[in-house]
Amino acid sequence: MNRFIKFWKLGNPQFNTTDFGISRDGELVLREGNYQYNLYDLACKFGTPLEIAFPYIVERRLRETIDIFNRTIKSFRYRGKFFYHYPMKASQNKEFILPILSEGGNLEVTSSNELWLVKRMWEQEQFSSRIRVICNGPKTNQYLSLITELREKGLNITPIIEDKFELAALSTFRGDIGIRLDTQVKVRGHWDNKFNRFGLTAEEILSFGRIRNLKLLHYHTSKQLEYVEDIVRPLKKAMAVYIKLRKNNPNLDMIDLGGGMPVPFEKKPLFSTQAIVKRIVRTIIKTCDIANIPHPDILVEWGSYLVAPAQVTIYRVLSEKIVPQSSTVSKWYIVDGSFMNDLKDTWAIHQKWHIVPVNRLQAKKLSRVWLAGLSCDSDDKYTAGGTYVPMPSLDTLEPNEQQYLAVFDTGAYQDALSSHHCLLSSPMKIVIQNGIITIARKRETAEEIGKQFGW
Ligand SMILES: *Cc1c(COP(=O)(O)O)cnc(C)c1O
User: What is 289-349 written as a DSSP string?
Assistant: First the structure.
């Protein structure tokens, strides 16, 4: 048994698969405290494609993050505080956001419509004025007036200045203001620095002199920063700017590192959270102590890190086809969902996923396969970066038995990026917490999708 758990990389805290295991019948299970969920039974019951979200994983990851920062701050006698800000764009789903807020998270929004969700929560009395909301992204007039409206209602709204027009537009804003730095530090990652259009350079920011109500310096480097130095170097650059900026802006007392904390999508070990938090806190202490200024509050906006591991997407294998002229892969497995539609990053940024069978996890005969989606698009595929996905061979299926597979870590970005190529329906989505299953999104009917196209 242990051999299979190890082979499929389950039960491993380094890979965020601690709670996943294999039942006696070779089926994929997940434990939440005293509850155990059999993902095969769920796939049979609700049908596929199926997304399953586990809010308890988000809650636990947030508690751990806050805890690690607070413990590190205490042990280093750091004199600032830590605030976690959830970047809403990672997943705007209610089942994630409400638990994050009740566990002490703050927010970061990127658009007027995301901020509208804050207004909605406020009106429904699900939102406290203690929660700070950082407003990033280009400020349309609609966005600016919502920022002002919510501030006047007493919410804790901090708009971030992204350019000189916003500096002017927010010059009369009566609350804390942040400014976004483009650190221009090159890091390894998907985001090419050459095309970075976000924020202002150090020179531009410092040329503004005094900025009314300036409270926070923000930067965001890239997503999935897999090297410690790619987190530390931009921070050093930002702290150098922070120190200069404080001379004219004595109220400045927050440094916001943005997102980019990596997720072990490929189940290869990454640095530990504890290790990076120590580096972050130590780096800030060192620069502040040399410059003889107080320690700022530390903010992070780690999105994928928090929510990606809290969702899986399940497909059923419809059929198989021979891959001609290949020595590494033998077959295509055609699944009953779409990578291009439901897991858009597969196509957009060649995201790699950990993919595990949902049943027959103890099968001895495996095939090396590529996966193909339901759409007619030749790009609707997953080839694990040109390698292969191991899956139980279909030759050994019992009559009437079906093969299901689970794509791990699909909780960040995929829902909002999803689309309807070939008019395919989005997966059904269920949420499981404390043994209770709720249907968060029904399977779309042809009629519902047709409507969006004027039918
Ligand atoms: C996208 C984004 C984040 C979140 O990035 P992750 O890679 O998901 O952690 C945080 N802050 C800003 C400004 C962003 O644009």
Answer: HHHT-PPPEEEE---HHHHGGGEEEEEEEEEEEE-TT-SS--EEEEESS-HHHHSTHHHHS
